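Figure-free illustration: sequence to structure, shown twice.
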Amino acid sequence: MTPLPSSWARAWSDLGLQPPPGLFEQLVRAYEEPQRHYHSLQHLRECLMHFEQARHLAQQPGEVAIALWFHDAIYDVRGKDNERLSADWAIRVLASSHASQLTLARVEQLIMVTRHDATPSEPDEQLLVDIDLAILGATPERFAEYDAQVRAEYAWVPGFVYRMKRRSVLQSFLARPTIYSTDHFRARHEAQARINLAGVI
C-alpha cells in the first residue's frame, strides 16, 4: 500500500493544488484521537487502499481522495454533525488553496454522502460510499474487529440500547437490493458483506 504521505501528495497533485503546510500532520493527529477505535488511521488507510485499487473508476480522483482524507476528520462519538464539520474543514482548506467553486461543491457533497442516509447518485459519490462501506465485506476476522471497535466508540451507550440501534443500522444495509453501487465493489464484497451482516443481526 502507498504510504500516507505519498497518498496525500498525489491527492493534491491530482487537484493541481498545494496543501497548506502542516495540514497533513494535523489530519493524522485528528485520526489518532483517543476516542477513536474504528474511525482511526486504520480506517483511513483501508479506505485509501481500496481507492488505489479502484482509482480508475473515479471521474475526479483528486476530489475523491481529498474527500476520503477528510470524511472522518472530525469525529465526536456523541456528535450529530461530524460529516458537516468535516466537510466545512475541507472546504476551508481547499478555498484557502484556491480550489475552484466546482471542486469545493463536489468535495463537500462527497463528504456529506458518507452520512449514508441516502443512496448516492453520482459516480464519484457511489465510489466513495462503496469504499467507506467496504469494511462490511471484509474477512470475518476483520469484520469482527470492526464490530468490536464500533462498540468501543459507543461504550457510553447502554448495551440494550446499543444493540437495538446497531441492529437497525445494519439491517438497513442488508435490506438494500445491493449494498454496493459499483460493479467493482459488488463483485469483491457484496456476498461476504451479507454473510457478515446476517451473522450479527
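We now fold a second protein in the same way, so the two outputs can be compared directly.
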Amino acid sequence: MGLHRFHPTPSGRMGTLWALSSIRNAALVEFGSMGHMLYGRATLKRMGKDPDCKLYSTHINESDIAMGETNRLTRAIADIALRDQPRVIFVLPSTIPEMIGTDLSALCKELQTSYPHVRLLPFEAGGFNIELHRGVQETLLLLATTLPLDVPPTPNPTFNLIGSCTDLFQFNADTQEIVRMMEGAFGLKPLCIMTSDTSVEDIEHMGGAHINLVIRREGLSAACHLQQQFGTPLVEGRPYGMQGTYSWLEQIAQILDKPINQSFILQEQAEARPIMEIAPGFFSHQKKTVKLSIGGHADVVAGILTYACSELGLTPDLCWCDSPAMATEDLPYWQEAQWSQTITNRHQGLLMASGEVLTWAGRNNLAMQIANPSRGWQMYPYSPPYMGFRGAMNLATMWMNEVVRIL
C-alpha cells in the first residue's frame, strides 16, 4: 500500500462490512484482528448509523497464521449462535486469512449441519484486490441469490429499494425522500430497503415486491437476479431535480401500469415554486459564470450535475468519480494525487465533493459535501435530502447561498 496524506480508497472488505452492518437479526464475525472491526464500527457512527447487525472479531495470533488454525472462528460461531440466536451469521475474512488461503466457504459448509436454525453465509472480500464499490456489489448480489424465499406477491403493491447502503453520503435522508415520494405518488410502501434499513426477514421476502428500485449501479446485478427469479421489474436511476424526479416517477408508473397521484405532484410543485422560479435567473444574472465542480460516486455526480446544468443553467467544470471501474472519458477517476493538485484554495466556483476535498480546498461549508470520507459527524437523522423533489429545493437553495458567500 502506498503512502497517503488522506484516507485511501476503502477496500472491498470495508464495502462488505458497511453493507452488512445495518441488517437486523443477523450477526457478523470477522476472522482477523480486532482493529479493523473497531475502525469500521467507529466510521459507521460518523456516517450516522449505529450498527443493527451484531459485529464481532475473533482476533488472530501467530499460531492461526503459521498453522492455519481456525479454532477461534469455530468457537466464536458457536458462542454467537448460542447467545444471540441470529437468523444469519455473516462470516468475513480479514486480510491475513485471505492471503494464506483460509477456505471459509468450506469451513461454513462443514459447520452448517451443527446449526440447523442459523444460516452461515461466508463472504470472500477479505483482501485488497477489490475496491469498495465492488465489495458492495458482490455483497448485494450474494444476499439476493441466497436469502430470498419463494413467496407470493404482496396483496398491496410494494417495492424494494436496492443500493441504499451506509457508505453513500446522506443515505438516510435520500432513502426517506424516496419512501415519501413512492407513498405519495403511488401509495406504495417499502418491503425491503437493502441494506440501510432492513432485516433478514425483509430480505427473505424481497420476492413479494411488485417493483425493484435500483439507486446505484452496484445493485443492478442483484436486481437482475431477482427479476430472473421472481419476475420483478426494475427501474435503475437516482432521481435528482424537479424534472428528473418526475421522469423517474413516470418510468415507475409505466412499469406498474398505475397513474401518478397528480394531487401529490401539484402539491410538490407548489412547495418548490418559490425557489425554482428564482434560482435559474439568479444564476444566469451573476457577473461571472457559475461553474460547478463535483466529485464522488459516479451515479451521484452524474445525477446532480445533470440537474444543475439542465434545470438551473449552471456550467460544469471539474468532474471526477471515486472508482476506477466507473470512470469514463467524461467522468475520470481521480486519485488523491490528482485531486489534491487540481483542487486548491484558489479554486473558483461551486465545489461539491468529500469532506476531505472541501477542507483541502479551504471550503468551510461542509453542507456542500456529497461523499465520504467526512471531516464531521453525520449523526442528525433529519438532514434534508439531495434526491427527489425536496432534494431539488435543498440543492438549489444551497447553491444560491454558496454563490453569495464565495463570488
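Summary for the second example: The longest strand covers residues 158-164.
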